[in-house]
Write a structure and sequence with these properties.
- The chain is mainly alpha-helical.
- It has one domain: ABC transporter involved in vitamin B12 uptake, BtuC (Orthogonal Bundle), CATH 1.10.3470.
- Helix content is 72%, strand content 3%.
- It has a two-stranded antiparallel sheet with strand order 1-4. The chain has a two-stranded antiparallel sheet with strand order 2-3.
- The chain is globular.
- The protein starts with 6 loop residues before the first helix and ends in a 14-residue tail after the last helix.
């Protein structure tokens, strides 16, 4: 079951792991930001990612817009979708029990999945090819797609930008205040609705960027594509410490490397690739219940 690997094959798998792990991290940041502010697991996040993939597909393949125009429109539409979901599905339940918010999130997830199936059919659509990003480059025995190199740099750039926003701007200060104590922040004059809407906008924008890069690397779009991806990214956020941006990135990389190296070392277990995320989650939570970089939090009654 275990195979011997050359150095080139091992390096190839490391590059693949870094690429997919960075994608998981990019999407996981959206989960962790919403949870950090609202203590809400936004199960619709994976389906927002799916809708962004369809926005991109239709912009390029149906309306024949230039890629840069399509990417911009995709991000804007996904931002509006995320903010709209928060406004109409979550905000009216903000003072309700957490269970109500959770049920609402699951309901929005099913709504988006079924709406996409009704509007776009369940048939997978081939995402347009970007030769500049997908044409393999041979380098010293390694075969690398340019998009696989681009993804980690985009994730790193976004993480640095978010950390700067959170730690060095007034918006970030307001986000941290709301995350620490919602009621006190409201009494101090912080515009709670604006802060929460900004958080959903940022998280949805990251889902859009992740969808664009994902579809370049895995060129297929279908209504249920966000289910497994969303679940894995949620697991990545929990592994790293949900509520922590750096933790989300760390969790995504751990998941990406674990998946690719397991397939490389144990090819007979390829069919169990998705199960790796759950095994790692169980192991991490047994020893670190709050995740690797998570802090212990006390729920208010």
């Amino acid at each position: 079951m275990v195979i011997g690997m050359t150095l080139e094959t091992f390096l190839q798998q490391l590059i693949n792991g870094l690429s997919i792990g960075s994608l998981y991290a990019l999407i996981a940041i959206g989960y962790t930001m919403v949870y950090g502010i609202l203590r809400l697991i936004n199960f619709a996040h994976g389906d927002i990612f799916m809708m962004a993939a369809y926005f991109t597909y239709f912009g390029i393949a149906v309306f024949f817009l230039p890629w840069y125009v399509t990417f911009f429109i995709t991000i804007v539409l996904t931002l509006l979708l995320g903010v709209g979901i928060e406004r109409f599905a979550y905000r009216p339940l903000r003072n309700a029990p957490k269970t109500s918010l959770l049920i609402s999130a699951i309901g929005v997830s099913f709504l988006l999945e079924n709406l996409a199936t009704y509007l776009f059919s369940g048939k997978p659509q081939a995402f347009p090819n970007f030769p500049l990003m997908t044409t393999p480059i041979n380098f010293d025995g390694l075969t690398i797609q340019p998009v696989s190199i681009l993804i980690p740099f985009v994730t790193l750039f976004i993480m640095i930008g978010l950390l700067f926003l959170i730690n060095h701007t007034k918006v970030g200060m307001a986000m941290r205040a709301v995350a620490v104590d919602y009621d006190t922040a409201k009494l101090m004059g912080i515009k709670i609705n604006g802060v929460i809407s900004s958080t959903f906008a940022i998280g949805s924008g990251l889902a859009a960027v992740g969808a664009i890069l994902w579809c370049m690397k895995y060129p297929s779009v279908l209504p249920l594509m966000g289910v497994v991806v969303g679940l894995k990214c949620f697991i990545a956020a929990v592994i790293g410490g949900i509520g922590n941006v750096k933790g989300a990135v760390l969790g995504g990389l751990i998941l990406g490397f674990s998946e690719t190296l397991m397939v490389a070392f144990f090819p007979a277990l390829t069919g169990y690739r998705d199960a790796v995320a759950f095994v790692i989650l169980i192991i991490i939570l047994l020893f670190l219940p709050n995740g690797i970089l998570g802090k212990k939090q006390v729920e208010k009654v």
